[in-house]
């Protein structure tokens, strides 16, 4: 295997490396112990305090020593972090401008006096929303609401869809006075609590609360033993990669899935009509599954045809990582989605929505905290940084460079590595063979490169937006070693 | 009506007033404009930026000018805040020790580098949990997990209950390999997604996400148009106040409700067995409805009799406001609850649970953020303050003083004011007559006293733990004026 990616990145490369150096304190990974190391292990076995998650716990972090793309663990191992707290830190660790913001008196007052945001917002809040969330709305969506996490964002988006659907059905915002709906809803009974559904896809992940979990179909560990709504589930296209090589069979697979979507809408019409469709632009937790832009355009058309809502869940794909601010901007939709939900790198959860979805009564969609306005200060500053440093474009270029390298590694390890796929920096690759993925993943970690895993045999890259070709070189180098070790 | 409450508070009074003065910058309300004033109104009508909540919006706040028990609004009105952001600020506004904490480097690193807490916690996290949440566990509960808001806390508590129930039923943590449960849960079908239920009460409020909303029965505006699980709903006792005067009829009412609880458990056994009971110690949103300690003890016994979980939702009652850290400590339970959920004044959501409820597989209960560790720094400091200033006891004494004053007002306005009820500072009173409650509430606001409302005719007091007899005097004085004006 010949490493080529050190010398042939397009002209912007040196600029990108400089950007990365500004953010980073470290220039390369440095591993002192096995990971998790002794200090992580000591902490792991403290009683009670790990909140029942020892099974999910990787290691403990020293956040004060971490910087930019490099995460330092409790044992002083310096790791190039390509996972960024499950894709939730857009600018890596301890960004200086965000740290400076933490020292600001106004920021601290916003943080400490956390309001009941829907009822007693701070006087600067409308402008703050304009300067943050409304700087980057998905095309065509003018409305926005915040929530505390991704699951709550999708739960409330579904509620907005149900409310919109019923408003449409009865031709007015609320039922007439004395309608049976008022009384029955208090008892969870029809017609006040209608039998409606959200159509989701095999392999989807939209959250773990009871409503969103009914649309999540990634792994049994997430769902087992939890009651669920009986809602329709369509197959998500199982495409062959590289997409450009398998165009016609992939198109057939997508057509099959779309046909089933329509069948399900018709089938559910008699038991729990489909009020909305929810989909991720790239199924993340489910295995980094892609579909073509045409698939999504046709799906949007189906929603229009049946007059049901079309929600794009951009909790993981949002905020520039795919090379556009919102991943669905790649699709070239003629009609925008009705709802786009977000969380993770946006610092706060919530969703954008169309004027048609907008509800007009207070307390219909509500929560004591409704997210947290201090997070919008982080978002506002981050948007400024992303724009001024052209990081959306950098995500695309660096992602292309990573994909090129992954495909070269595929050629070198054809029996092992396959199906490299990505959009911008949102990349994944699959490693075949029993336990091979976990072995490579662990080997990478012990070489100082932290990646995520998804599906049964994929590793996923969710680096910060400051990830540069220099970081890609390190990753590919270590991955080459890890593949060689299998 | 003779005001008596200015001169007869027990001996600790001057001490309490001094405490309040330390926290407050203002000594009395000062109202310059009608509320909401012109500056609140200007902001209210900015397009898009109020997040669809104009119907729930009261006014805009100037948090930087607010201090202790006094909230300053956008029009520079100084309000004595007896609602504290829907009961979510334990020490009022801009507490100096918490502000100092915001300036601390370690705090800022914890805040900015928000981790995926279940997988990559900070190295100080176990100790931080010990020093905050595990300093104040409900008696008998050793385990704790954090979540981002109250709704998510209850959603995940219900999941823990379902998992515990199924573990019990099959006699082991997970189904055997190849069990049908693994495959069916991915499709939302039995046996993997079992038909189980949570029993809740009329008038309850446990959240607004689809699972918790199925246990919320406060107002139609919360529930209308949203699909719900068909779960059993028992009547919550409708008691007559004062409780000590109506003992025998109240006891009969409670016996009636408990009998229906058992009937429902038996009835649901064939369609969706009850895995747990959830109840608030005082129904808050539903109208500040109390029940006797004996009622709760008997309810706990019923849960034991049928071997189902008993969850106490202390999202609003928790953290000292009732005169004990947890309201259910008043009950004298022989067997602790299985789960106690919290949020609001605890700064972060989550729930405590028993060793029996504890699950042992990673990712069973999980979320990317799982709350936020920086909030535990606020909690840790607040616990220190509450303990060193003896604020739990102060909540009891000041609450007793408030109740005494409310009952004196009842005597002065017998046709108007009734059913004053409370536990510590967690107090409410009812105002009879069409629209009278809203009129009094608005009058109080325009005199500079902010209270909450609940149910159809109640106002509720949810002041900070620094609320003192001197503040009570102001409230009673203004309430007297408002009642006079009706």
Automatic annotation (TrEMBL), chains A, B:
GO terms for molecular function: (S)-3-amino-2-methylpropionate transaminase activity; 4-aminobutyrate:2-oxoglutarate transaminase activity; pyridoxal phosphate binding. Residues 1-24 have a biased composition (Polar residues). One of its GO terms (cellular component) is mitochondrion. The keyword Nucleus does not apply. It comes from the Eukaryota. Residues 1-35 are annotated as: Disordered. Belongs to the class-III pyridoxal-phosphate-dependent aminotransferase family. This is 4-aminobutyrate aminotransferase, mitochondrial.
């Amino acid at each position: 295997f010949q490493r080529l990616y050190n010398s042939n990145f397009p002209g912007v490369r040196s600029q990108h490396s400089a950007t990365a150096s500004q953010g980073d304190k470290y220039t390369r990974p440095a591993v002192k112990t096995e990971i998790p190391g002794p200090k992580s292990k000591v902490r792991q076995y403290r009683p009670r305090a790990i909140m029942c998650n020892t099974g999910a716990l990787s290691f403990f972090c020293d956040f004060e020593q971490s910087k930019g793309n490099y995460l330092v663990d409790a044992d002083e191992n310096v790791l190039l972090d390509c996972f960024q707290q499950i894709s939730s830190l857009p600018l890596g660790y301890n960004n200086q401008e965000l740290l400076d913001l933490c020292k600001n008196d106004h920021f601290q007052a916003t943080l400490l006096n956390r309001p009941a945001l829907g009822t007693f917002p701070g006087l600067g809040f409308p402008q703050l929303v304009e300067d943050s969330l409304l700087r980057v709305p998905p095309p065509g969506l003018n409305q926005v609401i915040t929530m505390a996490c991704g699951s709550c964002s999708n739960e409330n988006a579904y509620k907005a869809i149900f409310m919109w659907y019923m408003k449409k059905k009865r031709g007015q915002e609320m039922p007439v006075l004395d309608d049976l709906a008022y009384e029955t809803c208090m008892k969870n009974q029809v017609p006040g609590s209608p039998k409606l559904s959200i159509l989701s896809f095999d392999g989807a992940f939209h959250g773990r609360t009871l409503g969103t979990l009914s649309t999540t179909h990634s792994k049994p560990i997430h769902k087992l033993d939890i009651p669920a709504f009986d809602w329709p589930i369509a197959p998500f296209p199982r495409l062959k990669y590289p997409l450009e090589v398998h165009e016609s069979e992939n198109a057939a697979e997508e057509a099959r899935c779309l046909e089933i979507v329509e069948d399900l809408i018709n089938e559910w019409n008699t038991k729990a009509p489909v009020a909305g469709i929810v989909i991720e632009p790239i199924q993340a937790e489910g295995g980094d599954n892609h579909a073509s832009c045409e698939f999504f355009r046709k799906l949007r058309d189906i929603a229009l045809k049946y007059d049901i809502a079309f929600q794009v869940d951009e909790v993981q794909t949002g905020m520039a990582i795919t090379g556009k601010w919102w991943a669905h901007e790649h699709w070239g939709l003629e009609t925008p989605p009705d709802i786009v939900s977000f969380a993770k790198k946006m610092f706060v959860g919530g969703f954008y929505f169309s004027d048609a979805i907008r509800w007009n009564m207070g307390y219909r969609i509500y929560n004591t905290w409704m997210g947290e306005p201090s997070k919008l200060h982080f978002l506002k500053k981050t948007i400024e940084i992303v724009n001024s440093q052209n990081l959306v474009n950098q995500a695309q270029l660096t992602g292309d460079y990573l994909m090129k390298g992954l495909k070269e590694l595929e050629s070198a390890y054809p029996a092992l590595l396959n199906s490299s796929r990505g959009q911008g920096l949102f990349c994944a690759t699959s490693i075949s063979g029993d336990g091979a993925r976990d072995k490579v993943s662990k080997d990478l970690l012990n070489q100082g490169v932290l990646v995520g895993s998804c599906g049964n045999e994929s590793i996923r890259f969710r680096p910060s937006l400051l990830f540069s070709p220099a970081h890609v070189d390190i990753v590919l180098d270590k991955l080459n070693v890890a593949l060689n070790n299998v």
